[in-house]
Amino acid sequence: MQTFPSELILETISHQPFSLASYDDDVLVIVNTASECGFTSQYQQLEALYQRYQTQGFHILGFPCNQFAGQEPAGNAQIQQFCTTTYQVSFDLFSKTEVNGAHAHPLFEWLKEAAPGVMGTQRIKWNFTKFLVSRDRQRVHRFAPTTVPEQMIANIELELPSPQND
């Protein structure tokens, strides 16, 4: 597995540069999203996970993607408004991103190599494919779009620091 690409500069949904290195030492869930998908309600469940674990060095990075049946046709401003108004999303959202093909974002290229899908495929099959990246970047778990975020809790908790006894 290649080294985690922490040197990447991402573009936030409001078109601002953001260094992936800002998340060093944090547990990450990275997900390709869409506003007109049958799995769109997962925004609410992802936000619940973020609220539950954000104080423990946990972040969710949402990347809207229009590569699957055109289910994310809106622009960044409309996507952001939809996510905050409809699902009260407060986790980090980034600009529309390609996850497959010749123009796939380097972060997704790394994720697909680090955690191949069924039968070793590296292609992302659909919206709301989720990747859980460990704090040390040595473990990446891939979750299918049909895996609801609550089903990821045990895996997330294994990656978070153990609570200190007082």
UniProtKB/TrEMBL annotation:
<protein>
    <recommendedName>
        <fullName>Glutathione peroxidase</fullName>
    </recommendedName>
</protein>
<comment type="similarity">
    <text>Belongs to the glutathione peroxidase family.</text>
</comment>
<dbReference type="GO" id="GO:0004601">
    <property type="term" value="F:peroxidase activity"/>
</dbReference>
<dbReference type="InterPro" id="IPR000889">
    <property type="entry name" value="Glutathione_peroxidase"/>
</dbReference>
<dbReference type="InterPro" id="IPR036249">
    <property type="entry name" value="Thioredoxin-like_sf"/>
</dbReference>
<keyword id="KW-0560">Oxidoreductase</keyword>
<keyword id="KW-0575">Peroxidase</keyword>
<dbReference type="InterPro" id="IPR029760">
    <property type="entry name" value="GPX_CS"/>
</dbReference>
<dbReference type="Pfam" id="PF00255">
    <property type="entry name" value="GSHPx"/>
</dbReference>
